[in-house]
Amino acid sequence: MLYYFLPILFASFLLSAATLKEQKPLDISINLYGLSQTKISLDDTIKSIDARLEKNNTDNAAITFFSAFNQSKANVVTGYNYVYALNSGEGLRNTPLLASNLPIYSHSQHHQIYDFPSNKTHARAYVKTFSEQKVAFLSLIDLERRSESFPSDEDIKKLGSTIDRGSIEGWNKVVLVSQYSPSATKAMLKQLKGIDVAITLGSERNITRVGKTCLAEFPYNDANQLPIKASLSASGYTTRCYW
């Protein structure tokens, strides 16, 4: 009887494997703006930066992050560690936009929330396909707001389980925006596998290699923020990271 089921099981395995996208090389550009105001309209911010890009003829990124790094208190929903707000197709030359830890006062049909409830083991990530590759975008918010803050073991475990789950769901690449300091983010990356690019804010523009991961530091208060450009290989390495 088992012989009748083996071909069916094998065919089912091949079918499920075929649904996963083959790992291929990918070039991607990512931008990050750190915002410090405790009350700010995301939509007004989009218009302001979009106008600045047009005026300076600045290259736009494939995806842009906004993250409220400098607030004295993290602006998160009670019981949630991570809050994403997605605005796609409105401003910034119609490129996708992600905002973490930033209140939104003007909602539209383009806004979606990607959260990480404290009672869950994994996050809902924003996944976008670039050149047939599924790229997942995750955010790690600093809730403590201390100068030497470091992600908790629980947060690191949740990120790890999220990335593991994503590999099963067919993610090809993973990008993380971290509100922690460059040194804390670097130490955290040594404990995690599967992150291709990590971005944070630092005192100056800088790129560091941490294992297979590219860690990019965007400078604070840069009037004409330049996107980081990364080349990701099919074998899971970030082969090139540059401004």
Q: What's the main sheet like?
A: 7 strands, mixed
Query: What is the CATH fold-level name?
Result: Purple Acid Phosphatase, chain A, domain 2
Question: What series of H and E elements makes up the topology?
Answer: HEHEEEEEEHEHEEEEE
Rounded to an integer in angstroms, the radius of gyration calculated over CA atoms is 19 Å
Signal peptide: 1-17
Keywords: Signal
Task: State the main characteristics.
243 residues, alpha/beta, Purple Acid Phosphatase, chain A, domain 2, 7-stranded mixed beta sheet, 6-stranded mixed beta sheet, 13 strands, disordered N terminus, signal
Describe it.
Keywords: Signal. InterPro entries: Metallo-depent_PP-like. This protein is α/β, with parallel strands linked by helices and about 240 residues long. The chain has a single domain (about 25-240), classed as 4-Layer Sandwich (Purple Acid Phosphatase, chain A, domain 2), CATH 3.60.21. Helix content is about 25%, strand content about 35%. It has four helices and 13 strands. The strands form two sheets. The protein has a seven-stranded mixed beta sheet, with no helix packed on it. Mean pLDDT is about 70; it is low at about 1-20, about 75-90 and about 100-110.
